[in-house]
Amino acid sequence: MSQPPTRRGLLRLAAGTAAAVPLAQAITPAQAVTGAAPDAPGIAGTAPGGAAMAATAAAPALPVQPFPLGQVALGDGAFRRKRDLMLDYARAYPADRILAVFRANAGLDTRGARPPGGWETADGNLRGHYGGHFLTLVAQAYADTREAALKTKLDHLVSALGECRQALADHGSPRPSHPGYLAAYPETQFVLLESYTTYPTIWAPYYTCHKIMRGLLDAYTLGGNAQALTLASGMGDWVHSRLGALPKAQLERMWSIYIAGEYGGMNEVLADLYALTGRPQHLAAARCFDNTALLDACAEDRDILEGRHANQHIPQFTGYLRLYDHTGEERYAAAARNFWDMVTESRTYSLGGTGQGEMFRARGAIAATLDDKNAETCATYNMLKLSRQLFFHEPDPVYMDHYERGLTNHILASRRDAGGAPSTSGPEVTYFVGMGPGVVREYGNIGTCCGGTGMENHTKYQDSVYFRSADGDALYVNLYLASTLRWPEKGLVVEQTGDYPAESLRTLVFREGGGPLDLRLRVPSWATGGFTVTVNGVPQRAEAVPGSYLTLSRNWRRGDRVDVSAPYRLRIERALDDPAVQSLFHGPVLLVARSAATGFRAFSFYKDFTLRGDLADAIDPEGRPSHFTTHGLTLAPFHLADDARYHAYFRRAEPVVVFGATDSGVPNRARGDGLTFLDVLWAQAPFATSADLVRAVAALADLWVSEGRFTRVERDRVVAAAPGVSQVRHA
């Protein structure tokens, strides 16, 4: 049976059609109170009817909490350069173009402005979603830079949306069912959804609602605009007025509809709104978005994801975590944890993205699904948000390992580098990121879902570099990005330098303040080449285990210096469904072969191995950071975002058991899991001496004989060839 048409496909056919799901910067329970910009008002605001809103809902204490965006400043490097490109866009793109669809719907003068385009058109069924993302973009940019012009732009956007909301309430045609309604199209789409109207007659009305509400909450928490909270609260009241009286069965049928029932992170944004307003109807409205069949399956650890629209569902689980925070219902938390495992353990490509043509495929289907439309960028945006939220609940390093992978190899790679189209006319970001052979990244995406999340991605790189324990006794260093943390409650300023994602020494210096503190340094799972730490030049004896945190507990003083060294090693990662289909990494950095060939390139490495069993003996450095050559091709970091065709996966070709220059003539047969004789052998490296290698070869060859994969004659030929491996690599 054919799949429904993808939204990306329709975009290519005609402008003005629909979208996918994103999700913006989440408010943790702590951020609901502390995430506001320094000049933000108190939490209390004014509700649409003029009554004062409640202070805040009681926020559950999570063991780990983030720092507000404005307390972490990016230092020089690749991340800051990409951030600056998006800041240019935030500053220059006309606010009136963003507002055009809202003003037209409210019967107000559009001031001659044209809508942005893409899916954000005068008659598009998703219009308004891009404006929500743009609010978040400007709010994040202001929180980061504190530029007065960005604050002025943000306030102008909110004020104009307030005028639109008032005009709709006063003389909308048709007039909305509740004065809190705010959108760029009439309420008709929401009414039609309640009678199960399908896409593309309608698109995803609550998805669009989510983007606008999230943008308004970010304008409040990050930009200090009190009116934005009033508008968001009114929208929450309107959502409750529509959905609160509907039967559960009707809601569940609505949310099961492909795309039309896509609601983004409505449950998350309403829970965040509840944390700010304390209004019970906002929490009740959040629970109206329980997608019960999928929620229950994931809570029970039953994987039913195959064939579902990936980004329609990912943000729902961040919302479930937020509902767990406020209700204590364990099924919400269990569903989020299990869903994350289902995606990351068996449906994630080497760059950290998921999905083929926007859809989840079967468990383990990696090699079988490689093409030019893998890894929708919105989906990675949302998986990183979910990873971050899960870490706040349970500081397991596995969440930050995934976060680093996706941030470095997908998100950083998703914005075209300087030299492309001017960043002031469009976001210049990716939608799909193909993982098939010889594909190329396509940039642009004005007005699309990934254009919207793309604006946000590159203005919040620093949001997960550092976390703090709830009691303030520990500082987590999760990512080794050049940055400066200001922690005013403790009087601390900590500066981190380094050239990540290039390989270099990372240095943290306590520039101001001090006192007792546990400094928890993440030891990445890829750091198998060593992880050493010195404090003021003195080596630390603490054990560093890849995939953990190393804790330094001391009474820190101003000027204290921590140097972290984690040398990068070349390594391969195998596709789950075909171990011969592999990706190459240099530490955390995905390497891609530059080639326009449309079939898999075949690489063979074992013949060049020395006793140390290191890929560095088979792949040559090119002279630039994380650039190499092999088989006549250049291997380059994928985060360098250009228009070159690339291969993120290659096919490993090791047909015969060969040791150095000695060819045994024996086929390199595989066992049931797809791993070959040489795969299993070299996984035991390094070997101290040639005799150690020969003993390992003999033992494994005997096993291959006992399991029927070698004859006795073949076994002897393999053992005889083993001394051909050199102690060192020959020029």
From TrEMBL:
MF annotations from Gene Ontology: hydrolase activity
Record GO biological process: carbohydrate metabolic process
Domain of life the protein comes from: Bacteria
Domain Non-reducing end beta-L-arabinofuranosidase-like GH127 middle, chain residue ranges per copy: 475-567
Pfam annotation, one family: Glyco_hydro127M
Keywords annotated in UniProt: Hydrolase, Signal
Signal peptide start-end: 1-32
PANTHER family linked to this entry: PROLINE-TRNA LIGASE (DUF1680)
The protein, known as: Glycoside hydrolase family 127 protein
